[in-house]
Structures are given as C-alpha cells and as structure tokens.
C-alpha cells in the first residue's frame, strides 16, 4: 500500500512539473525572462530575475566584522501592505538597503535590514544584538566610496513599541541603522516579538 | 482498503489530467504551489499605492512578465522610471507626483498600464472609446473630466523612456484584458514621523529624510533561532 501511495505521489509531482513546463511556452509574445505569462499566480518571488534594479547612487555591500556579517545589498522599498519590503526568507544571508532612506554617507538615517533567520538557518544579522558601542560597520557604495561607521548604541524593543522617530527621524549627520528581529518568538503570530536596532555614526570615508 | 485508495488515485489523477488539457486556467489556481503568504496574496497585473510627502507617491505594479509600460493616469504624473523590486522581481515601483486633491490613501486614484504579454488582443473597435469612461464610472466632481489617456500628454512628461503609447494600445490593455490595468487600490499608509526631537535635530521645516516610515517594526525572522 505504501508503495502504491509513493507511486501516486510521484505521479502527482511529475504531473505538476509537467504542467509548469507546458505553460511556459503558451504565449504569443516572448515572455520576459522566460516566465510563464498565463500562470502568474504560480510564479514565486524568487523566480523572477532582476533585470531593472535601482540604478541611482546606492550602497552595494555591508560588512560587520565582529559578527562576521558580509552581504551585498538589495535596494528595497515598501510592499503592498505598507511595510518595508525585506529580502526573501529563502535568502536569509541577504541584507538590504531601504531605498526610501538616505544613501549611507548622506546626512540622515540610512536604513539597512537583514534577517535574523530564515529558511531554517541563521540570517545575516543573527548576531546583531552582540554589537556594542565602537564596533565597526563598513559600507561600500556604487560610486566606489567605502564608508566606515561605528556603533553608537543599540536597542531591543517590542515591535509595537518600535522607535519610529528615533530610527527614521531626521538627523543632522550621516548615520546608519541596522535592523533585524529579536526577542522571543511568537509561534502563533509566526513572528519575533522584538526588533533589534543598531545605531551607528559615520567616522570615515 | 485497496478500493478506496484506488478511487483516490483515480480522482487525483483526473484532477490533474483535466487541468493539463487547459493548463493556463488550471495553473492560475494551483494551490499546492502557494507556500507562503506572499504567494497566496500575489495578484498579477494589479497595483497598490503609497503616499509620500509633498504629493509624491510610489505606485507598485505586479507584473511577472516584465517592465510595465504606458503607465497613465488622470490623477498623477510619472516622475521616475520604473525599477524592479529587488526582493521580489514580480513587482515594479514607479515614483509618481499626484495631482491636486488626490492621494492613494483616499482610494481615488486610478491608472492604467501595460504588462508585457498581456493585453495583446487585437485592438477592438471600441478602442476609440478610451478606458477612462469605464474605469471612472461615477466621477462627477471634476468639471473637466474625461481625462482621456489617449490624449497627447504634456510635452514635459517623459514617463516611459522606451516607447510612446499609441491611442489603441492603452484602452485595449486596460479595459479588455480581464485583470488588466485598473484601479489602484488603497493600502495602509502611515505618514512619515516628525523629525527626531532634540539632540541636534534639524528644524521642522527641513525635508523629511525618510519620506515613508512604517510603524510597528520590521519582519525579518522566521523562528529558526527560537528553537
């Protein structure tokens, strides 16, 4: 019986894959990036290659030596729910720059985001809460500049008490914010209860 | 025991075989592939809008087949080319300048656009009747209505770097394809916070450095480290 079920499972999987394959060539116009045009609901976030990334001045890489974090940076904006978009959970080692914040090195709070975990592994900012005042953060930019920031302080607060003004409010000098999740995990909400925010100041270019 | 299993197998196979015959339709609702909330809620060829300060906004268009073009609206001007959402390439973000009195939050912004591979039905005779009449059925407040998207736009506008929309493409795209360009729906929008107080904070009159500041935290974890 178990053999029959296994066979059945195999047939189901094969059929679904076949279906996917078939729909990939059903259009009258070449699909961008070879995607199936008639079945957009099946196209997942990671399936679509990025062909038109943000091409303005941007940070390209972040490194935090103390916690061995090193990632290139996506430019993200706001998702349809009005939240900051974050990298795919399937890529927990991927960090991102919030494109609606200043470019690191410009006056204001530049926002970088990273997962604490995802896809059943630790994320790029899993150790963010280990940072202390004076720790170094290095950011590369698309214009070739390499910026060095030093941690000024760190907070960990429940998400309902997220320090919106402190994180996003205007500053009079170039600053950096690194944000991730922390605290206890709420299994019902499938979400960590806190956010960890590291505040850093530019020290050299 | 064997018989029910056999029936089950036949039923499952039949449910697969039927969609195979009309694959595009069946796939559009293939629930087995929806493994995350993002997938479940994804709707192609639809848009949401976020208000930014000073009358600007971001229009986010879902277009899995590539760069949307011919983005038009009587309620905003496109001020920047579309960039692909790098965390999810199915979406495209377009900065817009909303016209007086309109905001995404109010839900009164409508637009049309063209996604590659969609709306390529042969232009119909009805295309001479622009879409706006159907997409804005109840509008009575504006005396100068019937803002036809087919009209020649202001010369200073350069919303699309690639090609100039034709008079037939726009109406066909936005009205005759089922999910085509249409209403820009509202989404939760919060105003950017006031400048940080004290500590050398900039004057209140300074431009807001982070024009859209969501409240309530950022979701960047999935429980693995929680054990």
Number of helices of chain A: 2
Give the tally of β-strands of chain B: 8
Could you report the average pLDDT of chain A, rounded to the nearest whole number?
A: 83
Strand order of the largest sheet of chain A: 1-2-3-4-9-10-8-7
What's the number of extended β-strand segments of chain A? 10
> Biggest interface, and residues per chain?
A-B, 105 and 89 residues
Note the main sheet of chain A.
8 strands, mixed, barrel
Structural class of chain A: mainly beta
User: What share of the residues of chain B lie within helices?
Assistant: 10-25%
3D structure, described in words:
The complex is a heterodimer of chains A (205) and B (227). Chain A contains 2 helices and 10 strands; from the N terminus they run αββββββββαββ. Chain A has 205 residues and is mainly beta. An 8-stranded mixed barrel of chain A has the order 1-2-3-4-9-10-8-7. A two-stranded antiparallel sheet of chain A has the order 5-6. In chain A, a hairpin with a 2-residue loop joins β5 and β6. By secondary structure, chain B is an alpha+beta fold. Chain B contains 5 helices and 8 strands, in the order αααβββββββααβ. Chain B has helices at residues 2-21, 23-27, 37-41, 132-135, 169-176; strands at 47-51, 56-62, 69-72, 76-78, 83-84, 91-98, 112-114, 184-185. In chain B, 41% of the residues are buried.
Q: Which SSEs are present, and which pair or pack?
A:
The complex is a heterodimer of chains A (205) and B (227).
Chain A: H1 2-23, E1 59-64, E2 69-76, E3 95-98, E4 108-114, E5 117-118, E6 121-122, E7 136-141, E8 146-158, H2 164-168, E9 174-186, E10 191-204
Parallel strand pairs in A: 2-3, 4-9
Antiparallel strand pairs in A: 1-2, 1-7, 3-4, 5-6, 7-8, 8-10, 9-10
Chain B: H1 2-21, H2 23-27, H3 37-41, E1 47-51, E2 56-62, E3 69-72, E4 76-78, E5 83-84, E6 91-98, E7 112-114, H4 132-135, H5 169-176, E8 184-185
Parallel strand pairs in B: 1-8
Antiparallel strand pairs in B: 1-2, 2-6, 3-7, 4-6, 5-6
């Amino acid at each position: 019986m178990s053999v029959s079920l296994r066979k059945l499972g195999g047939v189901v999987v094969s059929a679904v894959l076949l279906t996917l394959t078939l729909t990939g060539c059903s259009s009258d116009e070449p699909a961008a990036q070879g995607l199936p045009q008639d079945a957009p609901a099946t196209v997942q976030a990671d399936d679509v290659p990025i062909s038109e990334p943000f091409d303005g001045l941007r940070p390209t890489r972040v490194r935090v030596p103390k916690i061995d974090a090193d990632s290139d940076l996506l430019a993200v904006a706001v998702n349809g729910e009005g939240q900051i978009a974050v990298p795919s959970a399937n890529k927990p080692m991927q960090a991102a720059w919030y494109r609606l914040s200043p470019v690191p090195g410009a006056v204001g709070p530049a926002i970088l985001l990273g997962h604490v975990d995802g896809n059943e592994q630790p994320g790029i900012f899993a150790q963010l809460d280990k940072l202390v005042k004076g720790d170094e953060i290095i950011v590369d930019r698309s214009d070739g500049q390499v910026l060095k920031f030093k941690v000024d302080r760190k907070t960990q607060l429940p998400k309902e008490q997220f320090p919106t003004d402190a994180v996003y409010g205007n500053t009079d000098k170039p600053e950096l914010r690194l944000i991730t999740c922390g605290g206890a995990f709420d299994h019902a909400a499938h979400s960590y209860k806190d956010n960890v925010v590291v505040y850093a100041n530019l020290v050299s270019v | 025991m064997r018989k029910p299993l056999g029936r089950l197998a036949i039923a499952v196979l039949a449910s697969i075989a039927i969609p195979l015959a009309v694959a595009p339709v069946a796939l559009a609702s293939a629930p087995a592939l929806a493994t995350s909330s993002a997938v479940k809620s994804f709707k192609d060829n639809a848009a949401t809008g976020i208000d930014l300060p000073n009358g600007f906004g971001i229009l986010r268009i879902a277009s899995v087949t590539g760069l949307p073009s011919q983005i038009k609206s009587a309620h905003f001007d496109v001020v920047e080319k579309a960039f692909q959402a790098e965390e999810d390439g199915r979406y495209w973000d377009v900065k817009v300048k909303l016209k007086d009195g309109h905001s995404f939050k109010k839900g009164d912004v409508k637009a049309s656009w063209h996604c590659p591979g969609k709306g390529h039905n042969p232009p119909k005779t009805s295309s001479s009747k622009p879409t706006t009449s159907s997409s804005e059925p109840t509008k009575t407040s504006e005396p100068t209505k019937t803002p036809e998207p087919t009209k020649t736009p202001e010369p200073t506008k350069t919303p699309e770097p690639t090609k100039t929309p034709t008079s037939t493409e726009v109406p066909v795209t936005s009205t005759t394809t089922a999910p085509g360009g249409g209403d820009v729906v509202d989404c939760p929008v919060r105003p950017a916070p006031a400048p940080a107080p004290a500590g050398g904070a900039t004057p209140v009159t300074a431009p807001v450095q982070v024009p859209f500041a969501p409240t309530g935290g950022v979701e960047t974890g999935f429980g693995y480290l929680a054990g």
